[in-house]
Structures are given as C-alpha cells and as structure tokens.
Amino acid sequence: MKTIIHRGSSRGHSNHGWLDTHFTFSFANYYDPARVHFGALRVINDDVIAGGGGFGKHPHDNMEITTIVTEGTLEHNDSMGHIQQLGPNEVQVMSAGTGIFHSEYNASTKQPVKLFQIWVFPAEQNLTPRYDQKAFDPSERNGKWQRLVSPDEAGALLLNQKTWFSRSSLSADKTISYSMHDKSHGAYVFIIEGSADIAGARLETRDGIGISEMPEINIRASADSDILLIEVPMHW
Length: 236
Known about the structure:
The chain contains no helices and 20 strands. It has strands at residues 2-6, 12-15, 19-23, 41-49, 54-60, 64-71, 74-78, 83-86, 90-95, 100-106, 113-120, 130-135, 146-150, 157-158, 164-170, 175-179, 185-198, 201-204, 208-212, 216-233. The strands form three sheets. Strands 1, 13, 14, 15, 16, 17, 18, 19 and 20 form a nine-stranded mixed sheet that branches. A seven-stranded antiparallel sheet has the order 2-3-4-11-6-9-12, with no helix packed on it. The two termini are 20 Å apart.
C-alpha cells in the first residue's frame, strides 16, 4: 500500500475578495512539484464565491470537469447553449473535449456559493464536448456510498475516464469499505466535513489522502462525517 496525505492547512490558498479558494493540487499561481496530480486526478479546488461574484467566460479543452455545490446557487452559461443553475447536492459534469467556453457566477447578490471543482485527465483526447447535471438525494448516502460519477453506471453522471466519484455521510464510530474496480487504480479520499481513520491515519475536515496498491479501503468515522472518494487510474 502507498499513501500520501495532504492536510487541509497545507493547501494552496488565494483570496481575491470575490473568490476565496484553496487548492489541493498545483493550480493558478500555486505550484508544488510534489502536488501536481494523483494519478488521473488533476485538481480539487475548494471555492467560496461571494455574492455577485464569479468567473467570466473562459475556455477549457481535453479535461473532465466535475462541480459539486455544497451551499448556495451557482449559475452556469456555456458555448453549447446551456444556461443552468446548480444548488446544494447537485453535481455538474463537463467533458471539455475539443473545447468549450463557460462562465460560472453566484446566482445570489448577497449569499456566498460554496463548491468543489474537480478535474480529471480524459481517457480520450479531442472528443465532442458534453454537459450534464443531476441532483442527488442526500438521504441515499447515509452510511453507504452514493455514486455521483462513473464511466458507465446508470444513475451516475458519466465522464470520459475510468473514474468513480462516491460520497458518503458516515455517523461517528461507523465504518464503510470501498473496493477498487481495478487493482491498478488508486483512490483519493477527501473529508468534506468531520473526521475519519483511513489507512492508519486520522484525517480531519478538508484533509485528503491518496491510496494506491490497495484493493480495498476501510474507513471509520471518528465524528459525523461527509466523505468524498475519487477512484482514478494511476496510469492512463
């Protein structure tokens, strides 16, 4: 088993007033050669966008982008003609492929919107861009894994990579296990809120741990916890 731990306090940070953001991996002006990616997982950005703020229209290509809103409402507008809003427990996916332009704004002028934006390298380059979003019932992840993203599962949002995003709300002292789809894959576990024991380490809110060469991961919550697990190929 191989592990790498990223404490929440060690993440890159930037505060632009309208945007207060933390970077688990190198991004924008934050660069750490030891924290460029974990397998095919490239970005986990923890964003708080102030009321009235947002990202103007900007391009992406050949990246698989997932956005998970935890508080407030995000408004999305893209070059494919989608004008959508996402609220808490909604997830958005974009396969940027040959290229897409989009903007992301806080739909409120007063209340902040909080979200995670996660990038994964694609399995295939230069595909036709695609977009999808879905609301997930939070009660369906109590004590179990709720699949948010998959390459091929009904009920999950699809991405162009052998990646699975799973989320669980785990009560204190409860345990849960996760089995890899392929023994060559790794999993990055991120504690959205709470505290849990994973692979011999205690992780707290906003800590992350990358685990590879381990077919099954066992997690024990030491406090009520909201946990995100991202399985990715380590080589692709």
